[in-house]
Amino acid sequence: MPRGQKSKLRAREKRRQAREESWDPVDAQATVSEEEEESSFSPSPDVKDDLQSSPASGTPSSPQVLGEVHSTTASAEAVSSTRFTEDASDQLEETLNALHADDIAEYWHRGPLDEKVVMLVHYLLYKYQRKEPITKVEMLRNVIQVYKRNFHEIFKRASEYLELVFGLDMKEMDPNRNTYVLINKLELSCDSQEHRGVPKTGVLMTILGVIFMKGNCATEEDVWKVLNMMGLHDGRNHFIFGDPKKLITEDLVKNDYLVYRQVPDSDPPRYEFLWGPRAYSETTKMKVLEFVAKANHTSPSAFPPYYEEALRDEKERAQAKSTARAQIAAMASARSKAMANSLSLPK
Amino acid sequence: MQGSSRRTGTMTDVHRRFLQLLMTHGVLEEWEVKRLQKHCYKVHDCNAPVEKLEDFIHNINSVLESLYIEIKKGVTEDDGRPIYALVNLATTAISKMASDFAENELDLFRKALELIIDSETGFASSTNILNVVDQLKGKKMRKKEAEQVLQKFAQNKWLIEKEGEFTLHTRAILEMEQHIRETYPDAVKICNICHGLLIQGQSCETCGIRMHLPCVAKYFQSNSEPRCPNCNDYWPHEIPEVFDPEKERGAGLSKPSRKSLRPRQPL
């Protein structure tokens, strides 16, 4: 928000706080009717007790709107004076709380539900970029909170927003565990050469992780063990990924992300997976290790042997890059010297 | 959103793809953005005329407005190149980074940020940053690890590294300017010309006012006797050239080398 507006909003917030303290039913009614037009939610029993004795009890929305004011003025002050004292998960909550619910409500003539939709969109984008699936439990705890009863509406509207604005589709990954994943709708509709990095489904990253942590070569059984935990089974069509066997042994192989080959001298034939050349060029051991670490709520250094290997890989890549850069720079300076000389420009 | 009375643009797959790719990259230079835009048209709607970039972005921003997200345009502090970043407006700083970094890594960034803001040149040496490693929150980090993390920040365009010293990438400035100004009101430096946050720049040795290098370039363009806008004393520093996108493409080099600039002047 532009600075000017923000200080205007703060002034409004102060006035609102003052208004709340000297409760005026007439005033409240005016605000409430405005809010009521936009939001369509049922009163939540979690509202603060001190507001339930309010005279303007005819409209269910009023205690909730003011309840929101009560909690956000406190958090607004906390945010402005807080420097950096929370840990990462609290950080995310603080981030979400900083959306000054009252500012938004006042400025956009929206109700608290709309703010929750915005917060949920931010949260879902955050998870999408981390390539992590989303669970209902996480959404309720981190975003929805007191509006538990309105989960479906908030979720539906957030999903619509993501589809409309970002072209991301919300799909249920595992109906038993209420897990969802965002799929890039656009990618499915055309062949993209511009997209950076590996597909965001996380399946590939998981497989690359298994391969890496099995010494850069994993048996087919190893891979299936992990895929089964994600709800992918051989011979069972998955709602999003279709035939998992085809995905990992054909599609990803064809796209050079994986190498699938028979274990030498195996009879009956058994198969193993390795990283494909495209995996090496589009991601790194360190990135894959970070992915695995995050999925296990830890950090890469918790896996010392793999962390060391990943560090070595990073070093080699950096060295290769700087050698290449030096060569290009040398060529460029030689070229520019030649140009300068040929044009006889003063140096 | 339904309740909003603001005019919103229409999003097509062209815009969505553009937004997705910009989100993936985080920050892009103007020429890259133009190329990206053309690519999106090619992929989704090759018959439509390519909309002027400014209008195209304005269109998307009008839809993003109610989400407190914006495609922001900025200018690099050292050579005035226009860049674009997808920025979260309503969140506290560092939240964008939270999707890529662990708690102790974010804390390292905060420490580096504070050292950069407090420095005279806008650069903090890696030695100074690494010295605070044992004060970090979260899991204990060794110096060797911290070096890697600093490189990661540079790769992800949150910091810029120059000869072992670090400053803020323009992306970080775009994303965090508001937060930085609110959190460090006494330590921040401001440009006398554009009144924006200043990390690197030149300063008047007499009265101490500061200016961004591209602001200096524009202000003193074709002025043979540059004088301080505040105290009128002779401006002692070398005046950089105004960034010219045409010139850069014509030279045929991968990046123009700003030999005339010495961005790390003590302020």
From TrEMBL, chain B:
Major subcellular site: nucleus
Q: Where is the Phorbol-ester/DAG-type domain?
A: 176-228
Q: Tell me, what is an example of a GO biological process annotation in this record?
A: double-strand break repair via homologous recombination
Which subcellular locations apply to this protein? Chromosome, Telomere; Nucleus
GO MF, one term, reads: zinc ion binding
Q: Ranges of Basic residues compositional bias? A: 256-267
The EC number(s) this enzyme carries: 2.3.2.27
Q: Which key words are in the record? A: Chromosome, DNA damage, DNA recombination, DNA repair, Metal-binding, Nucleus, Telomere, Transferase, Ubl conjugation, Ubl conjugation pathway, Zinc, Zinc-finger
Its UniProt entry gives the catalysed reaction(s) as:
S-ubiquitinyl-[E2 ubiquitin-conjugating enzyme]-L-cysteine + [acceptor protein]-L-lysine = [E2 ubiquitin-conjugating enzyme]-L-cysteine + N(6)-ubiquitinyl-[acceptor protein]-L-lysine
- Residues annotated as domain RING-type: 191-232
Indicate the quaternary assembly: Component of the Smc5-Smc6 complex.
The record's family statement is: Belongs to the NSE1 family.
The entry's protein name is Non-structural maintenance of chromosomes element 1 homolog
Highest lineage ranks of the organism? Answer: Eukaryota, Metazoa, Chordata, Craniata, Vertebrata
